[in-house]
Amino acid sequence: MNYVKSDCMDYLKTIKDNSVDLIITDPPYYIGFDGGKGWDSQWENEKEYLSWCSKWVKECVRVLKPNRMLTIWGTLKTETFLKFKLETSDLVELFPQNEIIWSYNWGGRDKSNFARKHEYAWCWSKGEKFLFNSEDVLQPRKLKKNLRTGEKYSKGSIPTSVWEKNNHTTSKDYIGWHPTTKNLDVLTRIIRAYSNEKDTILDIFMGSGSTAVAAIRNGRNIIGCESDEEFYNLSSERIQKERKLKTE
Ligand SMILES: C[S@@+](CC[C@H](N)C(=O)[O-])C[C@H]1O[C@@H](n2cnc3c(N)ncnc32)[C@H](O)[C@@H]1O
After folding, report:
1. Listed residue (195, 186, 204, 172) closest to 102, CA to CA
2. Cα(242)–Cα(170) distance, rounded to whole angstroms?
3. Which CATH architecture has domain 2-247?
4. Is the whole-model pTM more than 0.90?
């Protein structure tokens, strides 16, 4: 494991070309939601934010192995403009794949309209083909046999790309010290589908360390960085505990 307190651009420079098996990362969304720390509002305007995104995305593509997946979390603004940016950019190796929609049902809601309770994990493969371990993510079927042929199903079905997961009521309730913690079940399914055991997974915006925890639980190697000292220290503790549990 190689996890450091660093700015993502500095950290990415230390990684070799075509060396990482899967990237899952959750950048600042530029919506001003960061618990007052300022990491989500450090740009003057959208143009500046997108220009910064272009730089780290380009580096991510460089370090990712061919035929593997780059997964970037996004919501609200980023689901439109970051996606647009990536799909109109000169990163010709990137091929858009089905996005994952994580739907949840907690937190505050405005009474003036339906509550928007989902986020996207945008997925781009490096190259047209990509690893997908369908057998490792099968879920139980509602129907036990094929209604047309009468044949019993011998295995589960591949999930759709819409995943409802609610293992906590609010982000704070879940981890307590980071405002945007991702769900471990969601991360686990992404990891199982798009990587093999012992593969190396990269997260350049580690936050509370959720990608690392899910990676360790699933027997993968994790590398990455986090620029905030407090988050880095707390996530390092969380990751160490997880590693200890795994080796006990
Ligand atoms: C959206 S949060 C990631 C949350 C994470 N997925 C989790 O489950 O806890 C983004 C994180 O990126 C960090 N960050 C912001 N700018 C950064 C940069 N330039 N380099 C590295 N980390 C950065 C922030 O401190 C924040 O913890």
Report:
1. 186
2. 22
3. 3-Layer(aba) Sandwich (3.40)
4. yes
